Structures are given as C-alpha cells and as structure tokens.
C-alpha cells in the first residue's frame, strides 16, 4: 500500500487552487494591448494636434478637416508599418531561438503557437489609430463657428483620452487614476505646444 505524504497533498491542492486565479500572467496581453492603446492614443493626440495647429492660423473648417483626414491616413499607415517591422523582428528572434533549442532546421506550425503575429499587430495598430483619430474629426466636422469648434474638439479629445487611459490601466491591472491623469495631461501638452508654436510661426508672417 502506497502512502501519499500529507504535505505533498496539501501543496498539490494549494497549487491547483491558486493556478487559475493567482498565476495568470497579464504580460501575455502586452503585445495586443500595447498596439491598441498606443495606436488609439497616437491617433487621438496627433490628429487633434494637427487640427489645432492648422486652426491656429487658418480658421476654415475645410482646412482643419482635410488636415485631420490626411493625418489619419498617414498615421495609420505609419503605425501599421512600424508595428509590422518591430513585431516581425521579434518573431525572427524567437523562431531562431526555437531552432537553436530544438536543433532543427524547420519549426512545425504547432510549435509556433503563441508567437507574436506581425500581421495582427499591424492591423490592430492601424485600426486603433484610425478609431482614435476619428474623435477630433467627428467632433469638429459639423461645427462652423471657430471658437465653438475648438472647444468642442478639445472636450471630446479630453474625454476620449480619459477613457483610453482608464481602459489601458484596467486591462493591464495598473493604477487607473495615475494612468488616466498621465494620458490626459500628455494629450493636453501635445495639443497646446502644437497650437502655440504654429500660431507663433503664423504670427511671424510665414505663409
């Protein structure tokens, strides 16, 4: 008759109880979370800053909307390409390491499950950037009075920044308040600097 030590049984039971709840690795979310949150924030802040900058010297609504749309397209393409190249480089490194570890020339598809996917990262980044960029575009598209348009756009961008900051913190189990404040203040600074410098250059007579 085989006797199982009580300590071993307790340790095994504790391990089973903790594994589903306490041993979850939130870093597994880091790849898609980073692409989505950074993409949305970049789309929101860069597009709003571009529109603010143009609005500092040219109050025409068509100029602001055209600038914002150009920023959306260019930024989404840039984010997608940059994310694709970055993740593909990471994939090459991990696949090369697998080949060294298993001493094989080819790695089966089943063995590469869980490796970073450059196409998914690029698509997520471009989509997130576009969604973020749509906020200032939609906020300013239907408001002709210049001052009202700027105020509405700034309010919409601030609200969206707060949502993105909170969402990123919640998904990554990070402090929500600090993350939200950091994102909102960073966005304000970007828009203020762009607006101020563009207005300064315009005031100097550069057309």
Automatic annotation (TrEMBL):
Catalytic activity: Fe(2+)(in) = Fe(2+)(out)
Keywords associated with the record: Ion transport, Iron, Iron transport, Membrane, Transmembrane, Transmembrane helix, Transport, Vacuole
Membrane-topology annotation of the record: Multi-pass membrane protein
Highest taxon of source: Eukaryota
This protein's GO CC annotations: membrane; vacuolar membrane
Pfam families in the record: VIT1
Location(s) in or outside the cell: Vacuole membrane
GO molecular function term, any single one: iron ion transmembrane transporter activity
Membrane-spanning segments: 63-81, 121-143, 150-169, 181-201
GO biological process per UniProt: intracellular manganese ion homeostasis
InterPro entries, per the entry: Ccc1_fam
Function: Vacuolar Fe(2+) uptake transporter.
Family: Belongs to the CCC1 family.
Protein name, per record: Vacuolar iron transporter
Species the sequence originates in: Lactuca sativa
